[in-house]
Design brief:
By secondary structure, the protein is an alpha+beta fold. It has two domains: 163 residues, Ribosomal Protein S5, domain 2; 129 residues, Alpha-Beta Plaits (2-Layer Sandwich). Helices cover 36% and strands 25% of the residues. It is built from ten helices and eleven strands. Strand 3, helix 1 and strand 4 form a beta-alpha-beta unit. The longest helix has 20 residues. The structure holds L-homoserine.
C-alpha cells in the first residue's frame, strides 16, 4: 500500500470529574488525513483548505509532522511521507484538535507499515507530536483518539490505560467562538486543592466509572460533577451557566467543559435531547453575536477510520 486516507476523530477530555485521566472518542467532528509514500525519507505537509486550516505546514511545528519524522528516523525508513491534512475539528477548541492530527498521522503511517507498531508505541509517538502544542501532554485526548471508546488513564508516564464500556449515548457539543489557550486554562487552576474537594472529586470519578459499567443512568447523573476544575475555568466561557442550565433542564445526564474549553459537552440518552441542547445553546451565542459550531455525535468505539 502506497497511500491511505483516514478520518481522525475529535475527543472530549476530562468528562467533568476525570481531569487529565478520562477521555472519550466521538464520531464527529473529525479531520481527514491522506498520507502518500514518497521516495525521499522526509516529511512534506500540505494543509488543505477548510474553516480550521490555520495550522503550520512545517513538520517540526506540526503535531503530525513530528511523530512522522521520528518514525522515519527510529525505523530507519528509506522512504518518506507526503501528509495532506484537512482540519474539520476546531483549533484550540477543547476537542482534541492537535491530538487528532498527531494520532491520525501515527495511525495512518502504521497502516502503511503493515501495522508493525503496538498500541503503546503508537501512543508514545502520538504523545511526542502533542508536545508541539503543550509542553507536558496528557493522554486524555491521544488515547481515545487512537483507540476509540472511553479511556481511563491510571498513569500517564507509563501509559497504563484501560477502556471503560460506553455505548448508546449521544454527545451534544457546543463550541462557541471564544479563544482560550490550554496554557491559560491550566494557569488559572490552583496548584493544590483542599482535601474535602479531593474526596468529592474521587468519589465522583470512581462512581462515574462504576456507573458506566453498571449502565446506571441515575449514578452517571449524580457522579458527572466537577467540583475542582469547573469553578475556575467556567469563568473563561461566556454564558457557561446558561448553557449548563439549558442542558440539565433538557434532560442531559451530565454536562461539563470539554477538555480545556471553550467547548462544552452534554451527555444525552437520545438524539432528540442532544439536538434540543445544541439548537438552544447556539441561539444564545448567535443572539449575542458570538459564532458557534455545534455537533451531535455518538461515541466512536474504534478511533480513526480508513476511508
Ligand atoms: N486534560 C487537559 C486539560 C486537556 O483539561 O487541561 C487535554 O489534555
Amino acid at each position: 500500500m502506497d497511500s491511505i486516507k483516514i478520518q481522525a476523530p475529535a475527543t472530549v477530555a476530562n468528562l467533568s470529574c476525570g481531569f487529565d485521566v478520562l477521555g472519550v472518542c466521538l464520531n464527529e467532528p473529525y479531520d481527514e488525513i491522506e498520507i502518500i509514500k514518497i521516495d525521499k525519507p522526509e516529511v512534506q505537509i500540505d494543509i488543505l483548505d477548510s474553516k480550521f486550516s490555520n495550522i503550520p505546514n512545517i513538520p517540526s511545528q506540526n503535531t503530525g509532522g513530528v511523530p512522522a519524522e521520528l518514525l522515519i528516523r527510529d525505523l530507519k525508513l528509506n522512504f518518506g511521507f507526503n501528509i495532506k491534512i484537512k482540519k474539520g475539528i476546531p483549533l484550540c477548541g477543547g476537542l482534541g484538535s492537535s491530538a487528532a492530527t498527531s494520532a491520525g498521522v501515527v495511525y495512518a503511517i502504521n497502516k502503511l507499515l503493515n501495522s508493525k507498531l503496538s498500541d503503546i508505541d503508537l501512543l508514545k509517538y502520538a504523545l511526542e507530536g502533542e508536545k508541539v502544542s503543550v509542553s507536558n501532554p496528557h493522554a486524555d485526548n491521544i488515547a481515545p483518539g487512537l483507540l476509540g471508546g472511553m479511556i481511563l488513564i491510571r498513569d500517564t508516564s507509563s501509559l497504563d490505560i484501560s477502556k471503560v464500556p460506553i455505548n448508546n449515548f449521544y454527545f451534544a457539543i457546543i463550541h462557541p467562538d471564544i479563544k482560550i489557550s490550554t496554557e491559560v486554562a491550566r494557569n488559572i487552576l490552583p496548584p493544590s486543592i483542599k482535601l474535602d474537594l479531593a474526596i468529592q472529586q474521587w468519589g465522583n470519578l470512581g462512581s462515574l466509572i462504576n456507573a458506566f459499567h453498571l449502565q446506571d443512568l441515575n449514578l452517571i447523573k449524580k457522579s458527572m460533577q466537577d467540583v475542582v476544575i469547573e469553578p475556575y475555568r467556567s469563568s473563561l466561557i461566556k454564558f457557561f451557566d446558561e448553557i449548563k442550565k439549558i442542558s440539565i433542564n433538557s434532560g442531559a445526564l451530565g454536562f461539563g467543559i470539554s477538555g480545556s474549553g471553550p467547548s462544552m459537552f452534554a451527555l444525552c440518552e437520545n438524539e432528540n435531547i442532544a439536538k434540543e441542547i445544541v439548537n438552544n445553546s447556539k441561539e444564545i451565542y448567535l443572539e449575542n453575536n458570538i459564532d458557534c459550531d455545534t455537533y451531535v455525535s455518538t461515541v466512536n468505539n474504534i478511533g480513526p477510520k480508513v476511508i
